[in-house]
């Protein structure tokens, strides 16, 4: 029971980390978006923040950081690219991508946790690729097709052409940033942080 209590507690430091990464994703949304090739979903840097949140914070803290941002957007704050905010966002073509950030961060974090105390660069890249691209596309593409009325296969092909190269660059960039952060600050490795919490060393 004691062990379970330690596992599920929410240290003050974790509150701060969640808030910092929610803010980071919001700040990345202030970089001008690129609506390439007439696509209804703009290219932004916010998925980079989603990958970083998952890979550094782990499964539930990464997902929570993104969820905080999504809730603030739903409340009307203009935290998405091009100053978008409010419930109308969730009726638009990018709704699936935005909602997909939450499980995307969770899957990224889960994969990094499975990599243990010293995840290497390849493991980080795979985690960011699967969570930050695969999962987000899995949610985003069907919703975009539904909202725009464009066939799913056509939407998927357009998304691949429009987003994939940029997102792969974000995967590489996020992986190098995470690797450097984890070397300098071992507690930034999700598995290490989880072990410290279980041992009662959380702050």
Structure notes:
The chain is an all-alpha fold and 203 residues long. It has a single domain (2-198), classed as Arp2/3 complex 21 kDa subunit ARPC3. The chain has helices spanning 2-8, 12-28, 46-57, 59-74, 95-114, 121-148, 152-184, 190-198. Helix 2 (12-28) crosses helix 4 and helix 3 packs across helix 6 (121-148). The two termini are 20 Å apart.
Distance from N terminus to C terminus (CA atoms, Å) equals 20 Å
Tell me about the biggest sheet?
A: none
CATH class equals: Mainly Alpha
Multimer state: single chain
Strand and helix map with partners:
Layout (H helix, E strand, L loop, with lengths): L1 H7 L3 H17 L17 H12 L1 H16 L20 H20 L6 H28 L3 H33 L5 H9 L5
Key phrases:
mainly alpha; 70% helix; Arp2/3 complex 21 kDa subunit ARPC3; single chain; 0% strand; disordered N terminus; 203 residues; 8 helices
Question: Summed up, what is this model?
Answer:
Helix content is 70%, strand content 0%. It is mainly alpha-helical and 203 residues long. It is built from 8 helices and no strands.
């Amino acid at each position: 029971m004691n062990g379970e209590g330690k596992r599920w507690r929410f240290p003050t430091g974790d509150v701060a980390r969640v808030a910092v990464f929610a803010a980071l994703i919001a700040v990345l949304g202030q970089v001008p978006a690129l609506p390439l090739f007439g696509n209804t979903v703009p290219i932004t840097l916010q998925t980079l923040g989603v990958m970083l949140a998952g890979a550094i914070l782990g499964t539930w803290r990464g997902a929570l950081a993104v969820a905080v941002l999504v809730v603030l957007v739903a409340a009307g704050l203009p935290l998405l690219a091009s100053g978008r905010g409010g419930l109308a966002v969730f009726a638009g073509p990018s709704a699936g991508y935005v909602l997909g950030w939450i499980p995307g961060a969770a899957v990224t974090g889960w994969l990094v946790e499975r990599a243990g105390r010293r995840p290497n660069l390849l493991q980080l890249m795979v985690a960011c690729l699967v969570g930050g691209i695969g999962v987000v596309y899995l949610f985003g593409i069907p919703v975009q097709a539904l909202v725009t009325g464009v066939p799913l296969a056509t939407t998927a092909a357009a998304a691949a052409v429009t987003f994939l190269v940029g997102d792969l660059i974000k995967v590489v960039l996020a992986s190098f940033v995470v690797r450097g952060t984890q070397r300098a600050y071992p507690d930034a490795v999700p598995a290490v942080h989880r072990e410290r919490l279980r041992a009662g060393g959380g702050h």
